[in-house]
Design brief:
By secondary structure, the protein is an alpha+beta fold. Helix content is 35%, strand content 21%. The chain is built from 15 helices and 18 strands. The strands form two sheets. Strands 3, 4, 5, 6, 11, 12, 13, 14, 15 and 16 form a ten-stranded mixed β-sheet that branches. Strands 1, 2, 7, 8, 9, 10, 17 and 18 form an eight-stranded mixed β-sheet that branches. The radius of gyration is 22 Å and the shape is globular. The relative contact order is 0.15. Mean pLDDT is 94; it is low at 338-345. Bound molecules: flavin-adenine dinucleotide. Flavin-adenine dinucleotide (FAD) binds next to helix 1, strand 8 and strand 16.
C-alpha cells in the first residue's frame, strides 16, 4: 500500500485530505463507486480526533434531550448499519443510568423508550426500568445511598483507531491509495482559479510532490479551516473547536459488563464510564479551545472535573494516582451564530464549497461518518461535473484487518508471546502493523495499531524499546532510528500521563 511516489503521475478522480473517520469514509465511499482515489494524511490515520473518541457507536442520548430527533434517528440508523457491515468491530453495549428519585426514573425511562422507538428496525435492545437490586447487580461499584433504581438501554461500542485501519484496508481493496505521513501544504489551481490538486510533503522522506485531481475533498476535521484558507485566505472559521478529555482507569472502578451513564453533570453534559479493552474509560469534558492542536493536552481542571463527577457516583472513587492514561480529542463543532457554549453547538455535519471548488465536510460524529462521506462525494461529484454513481456503502462489508496478526502468531510461536502482562498485544501485532497496516512510527504502533498508550501509558513507555527494536528489525532501520523514535514517542506519551 505504500506506493508513495505513484501519487505524482495520475489525475485522480478524488483527492481527499485528512485520514480520520471522515476522510477514510470518503475514500471508501468514492473508491467503492469505482472512482480513483488518493487520500493524504499528514501524520497517521486517526492522529486527530478519530482515535480519541468515547468509543461509542451511538444515536446520542443527549441530543434527544435537546429535542433533535432527526439527528438521533439518522445516527441510530448509521449505528445499525455499522454493526451490520463491521460486526467484528462493533458490539452492543448495555448502559445503565442510576436514578435517585421516582421522577428521574420516569423521565429517563420515557426518554430511553423514545430512543429505542427511534431506532426502529435498527434497534440494539429494549430499554428497561431496573429495580435497585438489579441496578446494583449491573453496576456493583456505584454508591448505594439514596439509589432508587436505574434505567437500562443499549448502544454500540468500538475501537475507533482500529476501525480506521479497517477502513483504510477496505478503501485500498477497492482501489484507493490511502497514504499516511503525507502533509498537504498548499492547493494547486488552474488559470480559471479552479483547484486541480495539492502540493504535499512526505513527512517520512522529505520528498515533495504534487497530487492532481478532478475534485479535492477537505476532511481535516478540527483543522479544516486552515486547509480552507489555502483555497480562500479570507475564509471565516467554520469550526468552534472544543476539547474533550477521557481518563482510563482499572476495571475495578466499573466491574461488570454494563457501562454507566450520568445524564446531567454540573456543566450540563453527560458523563460515560465505558468498559473498554479490560479497562474503564471515563469521560468527557467540553472546553472551548482557541486553536486545534494535533496533540492536545488535558487541563488540570478537566481531570479534576471527571474525578469529582466520578466520585459522586462511584462508592470507592478513583484518585489521581489510579489514572492509567489520559487522552484528549478536539471536536470539530460547526459554529452557529449566537451560541456561546460549545456543549450546545450542533453535532450535525456540514458541507461547504469554497473558492475554486474545495469541498469541505466536517462536524457530525464518528457514528455518522458513512453518511457524511456519502454527502461529500455526492456534492463533490455534482459540483465538479463528475459522473454521478450510486453510493454502495450502506451494504459494503468492512474488512477485518486483525486476521493478519493472528496468522503471523499462529505461524511463529515467538511472535505469539505477549509484550507486557498489562496488555494482550503480541510481537505479531507489531509486525502485522508494519507489514500490512501502514504503521511507520513507534507512536503509530503503540497509540493506534495497538491501543497500548491509551490503555496504560506507563506500561506503553516500558515496552517502547522492545517494540521499536521489533519494528527496526522488520523495516531494516538502524539504532539511530530507534533512538529518534523513542524520543518522539516519549514526548507524546508524556501528555497521556496524569502528572
Ligand atoms: C472527546 C470526544 C469524544 C467523542 N466521542 C465520540 C463517540 O463516542 N462516538 C462518536 O460517534 N463520535 C464521537 N466524537 C466525535 C468524533 O470523534 C469526531 O466527529 C470524528 O472523529 C471527526 O473525524 P474527522 O475525520 O472529521 O477529524 P479527525 O479525526 O481530526 O481527522 C482529520 C485529520 O486531518 C489531518 N490533517 C489536518 N491537516 C492536514 C493537512 N494539511 N494535510 C493532510 N492531513 C491533514 C489530521 O492530521 C487528522 O488526522 C467524539 C469527539 C471528541 C472530541
Amino acid at each position: 500500500m505504500r506506493a508513495r511516489a505513484g501519487a505524482i503521475d495520475t489525475i485522480w478522480d478524488f483527492l481527499i485530505i485528512g485520514g480520520g473517520a471522515t476522510g477514510l469514509g470518503c475514500a471508501v465511499d468514492a473508491a467503492s463507486r469505482g472512482f480513483s482515489v488518493l487520500l493524504l494524511e499528514q501524520n497517521d490515520f486517526g492522529k486527530g480526533t478519530s482515535s480519541r473518541s468515547t468509543k461509542l457507536v451511538h444515536g446520542g442520548v443527549r441530543y434527544l434531550a435537546q429535542g433533535n430527533l432527526k439527528l438521533v434517528q439518522e445516527a441510530l440508523k448509521e449505528r445499525g448499519m455499522l454493526l451490520k457491515n463491521a460486526p467484528h468491530m462493533v458490539s452492543k453495549q448495555a448502559f445503565v443510568i442510576p436514578v435517585y428519585s421516582y421522577w428521574d426514573k420516569f423521565f429517563y425511562g420515557a426518554g430511553l423508550k423514545t430512543y429505542g422507538l427511534l431506532s426502529g428496525k435498527y434497534g440494539f435492545g429494549r430499554s428497561e426500568i431496573l429495580s435497585r437490586t438489579e441496578t446494583l447487580r449491573r453496576l456493583p461499584t456505584i454508591r448505594k445511598e439514596g439509589l432508587d433504581g436505574g434505567v437500562l438501554y443499549y448502544d454500540g461500542k468500538f475501537d475507533d483507531a482500529r476501525l480506521l485501519v479497517d477502513l483504510a484496508a477496505t478503501a485500498a481493496s477497492n482501489g484507493a491509495v490511502p497514504l499516511n505521513h503525507v502533509r498537504v501544504f498548499s492547493l494547486q489551481r488552474n488559470d480559471a482559479g479552479r483547484i486541480t490538486g495539492a502540493a504535499c510533503s512526505d513527512e517520512l522522506t522529505g520528498q515533495v510532490f504534487v497530487a492532481r485531481a478532478r475534485a479535492v475533498i477537505n476532511a481535516t476535521g478540527p483543522f479544516c479551516d486552515s486547509v480552507r484558507r489555502m483555497s480562500d485566505p479570507s475564509a471565516e472559521n467554520l469550526i468552534a473547536p472544543s476539547q474533550g478529555v477521557h481518563l482510563v482507569l482499572d476495571s475495578k472502578f466499573l466491574s461488570g459488563t454494563s457501562a454507566l451513564m450520568v445524564p446531567k453533570t454540573s456543566d450540563r453534559r453527560v458523563l460515560f464510564a465505558v468498559p473498554w479493552h479490560g479497562r474503564a474509560v471515563f469521560g468527557t469534558t467540553d472546553t472551548p479551545v482557541k486553536k486545534p492542536e494535533l496533540e492536545p493536552r488535558a487541563l488540570e481542571q478537566e481531570i479534576d472535573f471527571i474525578l469529582e463527577t466520578a466520585a459522586e457516583y462511584i462508592a470507592d472513587p478513583p484518585r489521581r494516582s489510579d489514572i492509567l492514561s489520559v487522552f484528549t480529542g478536539i471536536r470539530p463543532l460547526v459554529k452557529s451564530s449566537g451560541a456561546t457554549n460549545t456543549a450546545v453547538l450542533s453535532r450535525d455535519h456540514t458541507t461547504q464549497i469554497d473558492l475554486g471548488g474545495l469541498v469541505t465536510i466536517t462536524g457530525g460524529k464518528w457514528t455518522t461518518y458513512r453518511r457524511m462521506a456519502e454527502d461529500a462525494v455526492n456534492q463533490a461529484s455534482e459540483h465538479h461535473g463528475i459522473e454521478r454513481r450510486k453510493c454502495v456503502t450502506a451494504d459494503l462489508p468492512i474488512t477485518d484487518s486483525k486476521t493478519a496478526a493472528d496468522d503471523l502468531a499462529e505461524s511463529d510461536p515467538k511472535l505469539a508471546e505477549l509484550l507486557h502482562p498489562a496488555f494482550e498485544y503480541r510481537a505479531a501485532d507489531v509486525v502485522a502493523a508494519v507489514r500490512s497496516e501502514l504503521a511507520a512510527t513507534l507512536e503509530d504502533v503503540l497509540a493506534r495499531r495497538t491501543r497500548a498508550l491509551f490503555l496504560d501509558a506507563r506500561a506503553a513507555i516500558e515496552i517502547a524499546p522492545k517494540v521499536a527494536a521489533i519494528m527496526a528489525a522488520d523495516l531494516g532501520e538502524s539504532e539511530s532510528w530507534i533512538a529518534d523514535q523513542l524520543k518522539s514517542f516519549n514526548t507524546v506519551a508524556d501528555g497521556f500521563l496524569p502528572d
